[in-house]
Amino acid sequence: MKRYSLSFFACLAVALAVTPEGPGPAPASKGLAALVPAGSLLYLEARDFASLVRDWNTSSEKPRWLKSDNYQVFSRSRLFLRLKEAQGEFAAAAGFPPDMSLVESVAGGESALALYDIGNLEFLYITRLPSARAMETVPGRAREKFEPRSAAELPYYVRTEPSKHRVVAFATTDNYLLLATREDLLAGALTLLAGKAGPTLKDEKWFGDAVRAAGPAGDLRLALNMRAVVRAPHFRSYWVQRNISDLRQYEAAIADVHRSSTEIREERVLLRSKQDEAPNAPASETISAKEAALTEVLRLVPDDSGLYRAWADPTSGEALELLERKVLAPRLGRGVAASYAPTVSLSEGQVGNEGDLETRIDVPPLGNTGGALCSEALRRLLEGKKLEAALQLQSSRGLPGGVFVGTESAIVLSASTAWDGEAARAALLAAVESLWTTSRLGANWLERRKGAATFHELNGLAPLAVATPGRFLIVANASELLLAVLSRMSNAPEAQGGVYAAGFRHARERENLVRMVRLIETPFAQRLGAEQEPGGHTPLFFSENLASLSQALARMESESIVVHDRGPVVLQTVTYRWSR
Fold first, then answer.
1. What is the mean pLDDT of residues 13-18?
2. pTM for the complete prediction?
3. What are phi and psi of 457, to 5 degrees?
């Protein structure tokens, strides 16, 4: 089956999923942004594009992903089909397909891609490539099919598809290769290359501000004109995060990717627009206090915890909701509002069916005798404390028998003053006694000791353990996890800081999570009947689609993020660690 490269941007993005042999050469002193005409929404620059393409083509991840259910689902998606349609229009205009052969032939050293229109995929691509090699690329060999023209006395070639007026233009000059889907973009770049004045991306305010706020450029740099991007209808339609309202506060963003043999690190800088900067922004000492509080709770994360999330300055409502949802009465979080109208079930007025023959119509249905969570005392406890940071821990574990998979959760809350252990235990017991017990059976705290650690545990069937060492309240549904947190109380804090941090240990959790969702999804799908599409069976979302993506990226050990909020600037560091 022929695999297509949908665009230069897609090829650059997917190349980040592999571990490189090493960093590419340092970029030339003259940045390519000075050769890009103004007006782009997105600018992507690589130190060595050829090495990215080579790393992707030789990686073990590429064949696994192309054979995965994840790729099969993506290849039937509306986004993929739209890109494939655009690919066909490009091929009709250029006379050659934009496949991997084209990408490999035009992949030079320092390279840049500027995207001007998301819907029409209007872009300009510039790469440093020896002139002799440039003439041997796919466009160079097909130049007889193009109409020769010139700009600033530099030659270029252009070809237009007559039915949809798709344009492909390219030029090779002074060890540069340029390729564009708009003639004016190519002519503008050649004019700048010839040393003539003109508006450039480098001169635009959003780009200049973002570059000045960012650190050293990485192996790959992505710059976004956020104001323009969020207004683009195609971005709003296809952006998977569905958080456009959150993105509107930002004027620009830059992400620098730094690669090594064992990690990919992404340094992000997001610039808030002036009108979105909070008038009562926290002072630097307040920010420092928040980051210190977060650093203090992050030292409590056990080395084998599958997932952790921590943030500074939580509200009492957030803390209560976290305790209830993850430990006391586990349930799903708030769902995402559906964008589809509800379905209507039309019937002929029948009530019941042949499966209801055993239902007695002369006996009232049994009432719900289950208890309820009563969290008022716990709410008062939390509202009476000044909370400084919250930490959520969660790990999967195989249950005896090797069939089912359970989860362990713990919540750590740090406060400005020491917790009253007796009051905390009383509030927790008041919250769960009517939910878990009858006549307070099994609703007594037992003191446990293990080494130097002391904690309390309920003596009933429902697992609940709590400890209050100083300014920390630790509540867990597994005593082993609570002890793992207590064992780290003497650890020195690491210089990490931030207002938010999270991490996921993919290598530890992958097999357990796949086994868990397979047990949930497979029986459900069997009851409903296998969903079919013209292309065949539709993979189940978690146990087949996402599981195949996890398998393709099996070498990824963990992912983490740390966020610093400086008011006008938000800094994010995302780190992917890989096994060799």
1. 43
2. 0.85
3. -140, 140
